[in-house]
Amino acid sequence: MTQPTYQTITAREQGGFIHVTLQRPDVRNAMNGHMVDELGAVLRSAEARREVRGLVLRGAGGNFSAGADLKDLSRAQASAPPGQDPVSEWNAAFGRLCAAYAGSELPIVVALEGAVMGGGFGLACVADVVLAASSAVFRLPETSLGLLPAQIAPFMLARLGYSETKRLSVSGGKIDAQEALTIRLVHSVHEDSAALDAAVSSTLDKIRACAPEATRATKALLMRAYTEQSAGIGALVDHAAGLFARAFRGPEAQEGITAFLQKKKPSWAEPTD
Fold this sequence. Notes:
Structural class: alpha/beta
CATH class: Alpha Beta
Number of strands: 9
Radius of gyration: 18 Å
Low-confidence stretches: none
Largest sheet: 6 strands, mixed
Number of helices: 11
Shape: globular
């Protein structure tokens, strides 16, 4: 089956799996509104076809994703007509995307290299199998920018637990692939891209060995068991989006984002006596 043409991702089908590549390498695959929409569209298309066995996500150009495209968000905020809040809308859309991937009955595999930041970190948390090259570097830069990890917080809690999520969130966490393995953010680490490719192939072979309908039903059961013992993720999306948008418009985020773009330190990162 011919895959649709996308602007910010590519999708190819091989051996029953849809291989999705984030294709904005010039900005380390930072996510704008188009990419969020297209990642949602490719998942819905795959889920509608019973012959599809799962999805593989990776990034082009040696990086997975640097998270939100802050320049794009800033432009959207500056040009928004009265009464519209594009930052909140984008953030909520990304939260719904994460929930869709987390709740999918299809197996989701991610292969990580280079930058895995913010929203990219969140996509890693919602996947079923997370494979990393030794080059992968994980960061939660939101609080260092005056922002919140608004939509990814519940998925971090589910993957890492309360203690590690707090540690990484309040410290602007930066960890390498081996530490990510230690805290079970990733399931295995591989020396280079070739070894990572081999690990992806081996993982897909293992998924193919499992009955497809039983796999879908098992994932649905696990998600129901998880959501019934927790408060549920869906209700947090709009609340978190409001918090993110309020922070984005606030003085800390304005200073933090400006400093980030100018490759400087914000005032709160300077040493104090």
